[in-house]
Amino acid sequence: MLYCVCKSFQQETTFVYNGFDQGDRIHLQGGARILPKKDVLQLTNATTTQIGRAFFKQPIEFNPSEPISFSTHFVCALVRVTEVSSHGMAFFVSHSTDFVGAEPSRYFGLFNANESASTLAVELDISKALDVLDINDNHVGIDVNRAVSVQSANASYYSDKEGRKIDMKLVSGQPIQVWVDYEGTTLNVSLSPLKNQKPSRPLLSSTSINLTEIVQGRRMFVGFSGSTGSGVVNQYVLGWSFSKSMASLQKIDVSKLPKAPYPSNKNKYTSLVYDILLGLLAFLVLGLFFGAYMYRRNLYIECRRWITSLHKAHRITGPNPASRIDLVGSVVKPIGLTLEYF
After folding, report:
1. What is the pTM of this model?
2. pLDDT at position 160 over 50
3. Which of 53, 132, 317, 329 could crosslink 147 through cysteines, CB 3.0-4.6 Å?
4. Structural domain harbouring 206
């Protein structure tokens, strides 16, 4: 369900999606799609090295006299498809919807290794790429114009009840709440499980973010981007709320959110059957090799016994050991044979 208020560019823009049953204001690029009958926004499918983006069609604009600020709250889920390490997703604010030269994998479909992009991003990263100085394979980062984070931290949230940080697993498949608040030059990022309220302390807080300078103006687009590498993780957005001010940010109704799809049991069953058959085939091949080895070994032993017995049969010894005649290698025929002893 969508609630949207889009007034003149001097006034407020706010919207909320409790599921994406009405995604007509969402523009999709690459592998991104809204799953029919599930009301879920999926950024990438089960394809490697793929990019998927989704952003609000209408640009967010600020007049020269008003301060630039925004607040957004979204619920996402990262569901692993393959055991091979893959990549996460990012919320972005950009001056354009055209990301020429952007690469998949560790660049989230927003950046590349060389050029600077006019983009602010909050990444949910599930891989450790040394070339972009990732701290681990389960972190949240603030990116300014490139994939090297200006600030990052292990995925966690502050529990007001317990008075401490509690670690979170980003690729658990469970829904995760993310809040991004920007005002002045301060950007705060908070995480929590779906059942929790917004933490009183943010996970990340950067006080040197100049959004006007980053997006080169007072007009910008907001959305999500995801990518895959050699491995695949399905990146889902279940709900999204955005406003130009924190005070007017609409709450997401978590009771109305769709469920994150999981790989079907049929696929799991097929994979299990395939693994079992592959194991049986390997066992059969090893059995054949072992059987062939034992057959050749037994045949060799029988041949040795036959040669030994033949050797004994052809050795004829007279009464006197000194008068022994050896017929090794001779052919003994059943004919009259006279032996003379010397």
Report:
1. 0.75
2. yes
3. 132
4. 2-259
